[in-house]
Amino acid sequence: MQSISLPSKPPTSPHSLFNLSFRIFFSAAAIFAVIFMVLWSFVFTGHTNIDAQTLNPLYWHGHEMIYGYALAVVAGFLLTAVKTWTGVMMPHGYPLLGIFVCWLLARLGWVAFGLGIGQGALLLYIAAVFDMLFIGTMAFVIFRAVLQVKQYKQMGILAKLALLTVGNGLCYWGVISANMNITKIGIYLGFYLIIGLILTIGRRVVPFFIERGLSITGTEKITLRNSKVQDVASLLFFLVFFITDVFYYNKYLLTISALGVAIVNVVRLLGWYHRGIWQKPLLWSLFIAFLGMCLSFVLYALQPWLGYNHSIAVHGLSIAGVGMMTLAMMARVSLGHTGRSIHTPPKTVNIMFGLMVLVFISRVLLPLVDTSHYLLWIMIAQGAWIACFILFCISYLRILASPRPDGLFG
């Protein structure tokens, strides 16, 4: 086993926010989730001067939810988790600030484009430079750490990061070449890669979090089941689904593969289930997020036969996977990695998770049964999303910006 040299002096940073990446990126993702959804509500109702000739407003929305919000959460999680997995110190202090500034400048370019400020295409060209620097630097430091300790089992995650870089590049290439079909492919490629990452990481951390959350001193020790067969089956079904929906549409393949993903992960959820999770919001939220993803894959499977809009299934998967799952992960990681008890989260978490469930119901389920109030359901979902992340900011920004109570660096 390779030994890892410890630093000669304790690490330092100019502010607690830059001790580890989850602090700054979770904070920024939550604030961005509020600002961007408020702006999207104005774009959606036609109250901004967005340049639709340069970029379809729907693709503007999709890009920033994936490569803006979701990738910020992924950066915060991975740049923190890889330190735990490998023992190699990840960027902190000013190097971390540099990575974050690249993300921030790219987001400012996209927000300005949405507001119709300045020359639209030029803003996106500038954003492209910083976006590529952000994701490229993130992937590089993770790759370097994994190679340093020869932890090759992480190569699947690295491959997804490499493909995310390709997907984001396609989005910008579509803008540059005035070909929105290329941009669409880049957005869906990024979306399904993020879902793939969530399924991969979720398979590791959800049972671990449930075991840790329920195996408290003096009570029964919880051991949850996991299966390599389920892992392989989920991966294969998801790969076929991904290729079919993005590159080679066939309704039979789509239905079979989407149902396959749903069934495998429902079986997996049954193996993770314990009645005690309902007493722990940081646990039932993860369970509900996975269940919502499974339901969304069922919606994908049924859509070719029942004829409802494809975006219903897309939004189901995005709200459950990108919305609820990332929210639940941020709520838990922000406590554990700042030295606070995961057993006593802020009292607002139940409301936060309840609001995200309302987003799913209003944006996905209600339009299925009542299309006559479609705009109303979307507005309710937008309002619930905004309220949810405002509550997260109120409850967690102080925690994320404060030193650890035990005085340790992290």
From TrEMBL:
Keyword set, alphabetical order: Membrane, Transmembrane, Transmembrane helix
TM ranges are 20-45, 65-82, 94-116, 122-143, 155-175, 187-210, 231-248, 254-270, 282-302, 308-328, 349-368, 374-397
- InterPro entries, alphabetically? NnrS
- Pfam families under this entry? NnrS
Instruction: Say yes or no: keyword rRNA-binding present.
Output: no
Q: Give the protein name, as stated in the record.
A: NnrS family protein
- Source organism: Psychrobacter frigidicola
